[in-house]
């Protein structure tokens, strides 16, 4: 359940902050691009916390 919570946090962030709740694009290739871009942005948001934990 702890791992599921971490996964759900990413999708929740993508829906609220990255705008994936209501898609601006049509077609699977464009939606895939938008999702990949949102997850890359989420990784950049998490990066300082991950680096601090590693040090």
Briefly say what this structure is.
This protein has 55 residues and is mainly α.
Describe the structure.
With 55 residues, this protein is mostly helical. The protein has one domain. Helices cover 76% and strands 0% of the residues. The protein is built from 2 helices and no strands. The chain has helices at 2-16, 28-54. The longest helix is centred in the C-terminal third of the chain and has 27 residues, at 28-54. The chain is elongated, with a radius of gyration of 13 Å. 0% of the residues are buried. The model has no long low-confidence stretch (mean pLDDT 90).
Largest sheet geometry? none
Mean pLDDT figure: 90
Spans with pLDDT under 50 lasting ≥5 residues? none
Order of helices and strands: HH
Alpha-carbon Rg, integer: 13 Å
N-C termini distance? 27 Å
How much of the sequence lies in strands comes to under 5%
Overall 3D geometry? elongated
Helix content: over 70%
Number of helices: 2
């Amino acid at each position: 359940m702890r791992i599921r919570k971490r996964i759900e946090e990413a999708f929740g962030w993508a829906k609220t902050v990255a705008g994936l709740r209501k898609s601006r694009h049509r077609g699977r290739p464009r939606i895939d691009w938008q999702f990949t871009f949102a997850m890359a942005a989420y990784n950049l948001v998490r990066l300082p916390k991950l680096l601090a934990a590693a040090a």
